[in-house]
Amino acid sequence: MANRCFYVLISEGGSRLKIFDAHSDVLYKMWLDPSISFVSSDHLHISLDKLINTNSKVQCFAIYIPETVKHEQRFDVALEMIQIFYAKVIPCSPKLKLVRNRSDIEALSDDEIGAMLTLEGCDAIGANMVKLQTLIRLGVASVGLTWNYANAVADGILEGRGAGLSSFGHEVVHENNKHFIMTDVSHISIKGFWDVIEHADYPIASHSNAFAICKNPRNLDDEQIRSLISVDGMIGVTFVPQFLSDKGTATISDVLKHVDHICGLGGEYNLGFGSDFDGITQTVNGLENYNGYEGLINTLLKYYKENQVKRFLFENYLNHLPI
Asked: Which Pfam families has this protein been placed in (predicted)?
């Protein structure tokens, strides 16, 4: 009975501002534990009840293949996570609708929530373009090229070699462009980042922060942030405590520091959020799960105008999505 999904309609409440969250690992957590229900679970940072109560408008669901999965099984695991998305997430409520682009989101009714599939790292496709094309046909709207280490596309940020895009990696970026797919630079090597900036039509960093504020290699330095802004890409401030503060613990005020810094570099219209909820075990004080967005919104409204906060939370990502 625990595996079944039931239709629910939960009364709306929470924040009055719409939210676009560009990264979560809900599918990974549900893949690890098939007994978890997306409807309402204390085991999930993001669940249907939390999305509805906190006024979510678009939630991205990443396909993340852990390093422990054998290479020859990774595409199968990606398909298993997509099956979870279509069998255990989308059917949970008539409020949830698959979205792939801006037009899909703009077509949502006021009480509907868009669910978007993304790929976190191309490990699942190996060096096989047909596998990427298959994932795109199944609904993937954003492709992260690496996790932290090397694959056939590029090196990740923790790979000592630090190589950029391979020949196959250039083909992947071209394929993304051809199908109006976002290319995600979170986790990629520094050289790979610059290769993407040069060749991608829709570059984003779905869940990365400012290196100037927190010296974690997963964060972007000022030159990288300025370059994403210059090509009209998006930067999703993430809630990973280790990416927010060198202390290793973080509060909402630490999130605000990264927002302030990116805005100071000219990123007011290129900034959003990518929580990484359900991909983290440690959380920000006051942002323990999706409901914590309310506290973040209240803090942002103390320092920014409401129209700016609306852009950070939703409109910037919407405006940068392919039509």
From this structure: Peptidase_M19
Amino acid at 309: V
Classify each residue of 182-191 as buried b or exposed e, where b means 16 or more C-beta atoms within 10 Å of its C-beta: bbbbbbbbbe
Measured distance CA(106)–CA(99) in Å, rounded: 10
CA–CA distance, 241 with 262 (Å, rounded to integer): 17
Give the distance from CA 58 to its chain's centroid. Answer: 11
Reported as a pLDDT band with limits 50, 70 and 90, residue 16 is confident
How many Cα atoms sit within 13 Å of 226 on the Cβ side? 6
Q: Does domain 19-320 have CATH number 3.20.20.140?
A: yes
- Full 3-state SS string of 196-245: HHHHCCCEEECCCCECCCCCCCCCECHHHHHHHHHCCCEEEECCCHHHHC
Q: Do 95 and 115 form a contact (C-beta atoms < 8 A)? A: no
Task: Name, in order, each residue with C-beta under 8 angstroms of 318's C-beta and a sequence gap of 6 or more.
Answer: 20, 58, 102, 105, 106
Per the structure block, which two tokens stand in for 51?
Answer: 């999305």
**Residue among 189, 175, 92 at smallest CA distance from 136:** 175
Each residue's pLDDT tens digit, 182-195? 999 999 999 999 99
pLDDT in tens, 232-241: 999 999 999 9
Nearest to 142 by CA among 61, 79, 218: 61
Q: Is the dihedral of CA 165, 78, 181, 189 positive or negative?
A: negative
Domain extent listing, the chain: 19-320
Give the predicted TM-score (pTM) of the model.
Answer: 0.95
Is 257 in a helix, a strand, or coil?
A: helix
